Known about the structure:
The structure is a homodimer of 129-residue chains. Chain A has 129 residues and is of the alpha+beta class. The first copy, chain A, has one domain: Ubiquitin-like (UB roll), CATH 3.10.20.810. The first copy, chain A, is built from 3 helices and 8 strands; from the N terminus they run H-E-E-H-E-E-E-E-E-E-H. Chain A has a 4-stranded mixed sheet, covered by helices on one side. A two-stranded antiparallel sheet of chain A has the order 3-4. Chain A has a two-stranded antiparallel ribbon with strand order 7-8. The longest helix of chain A has 10 residues. Chain A starts with a helix and ends with a helix. The model of chain A has no long low-confidence stretch (mean pLDDT 96). Strand 5 of chain A pairs antiparallel with strand 7 of chain B. Chains A, B: Its cofactor is Mg(2+); Zn(2+).
Amino acid sequence: MDWLDDVKWDAQGLVPVIAQEQGTGDVLMLAWMNREALRQTAALGRAVYFSRSRGKLWFKGEDSGHAQTVHEIRLDCDRDVLLLRVTQQGHQPGIACHTGRHSCFFSRLGDGAWQAVDAVLKDPRAIYG
Amino acid sequence: MDWLDDVKWDAQGLVPVIAQEQGTGDVLMLAWMNREALRQTAALGRAVYFSRSRGKLWFKGEDSGHAQTVHEIRLDCDRDVLLLRVTQQGHQPGIACHTGRHSCFFSRLGDGAWQAVDAVLKDPRAIYG
């Protein structure tokens, strides 16, 4: 498919992908996709990433139940970064982070240190237990 | 400085950085930082990236005038991605993209093709001329 060839995959065949929450505009996480992950994301309308640590496709929510419905897929001007507009499923408000928080970006720089400033919405042991 | 050591720099000494607009929540761009870029960003309160193509620090706005004032710096749960909350300077509405558009993510997937769906706000020749 031509549109998959338009993406500039890196040396590992990956691109970074930003997941932004529909409605709030909150940036939830950054993950990675390979060609097959992007193809499946577009086909299924749900986020499928490539797990670099596990070396395989990661159907977001397969363990946690916190899947992401994908409303829109965008590509940047250099064609090497993707932006998804998503609805985070399985909890209200949405939990994108494996720590049980809304967003993975819960640490803020202040007074020369990273400080966790966002609440844990659900105990990770209850998510993955 | 300890907080710089907390970041998990990749094999090239870099991390991806998402710039999100304060107020609108729009995702403007993704760029990269090395340790020195992050140190200067925090010290100056303006976005300083590392240009992978030029192999040196990139003081965002040095050519275009479209600098980014940084309100907040966040780190993700894996400590290998940064999120900036910024105000895009030099034009109203802000122009983050070298194509003269608000955001670098102006191409949307639809009908099996990437389609440019956001307007050019200023001719790039007028920005960089």
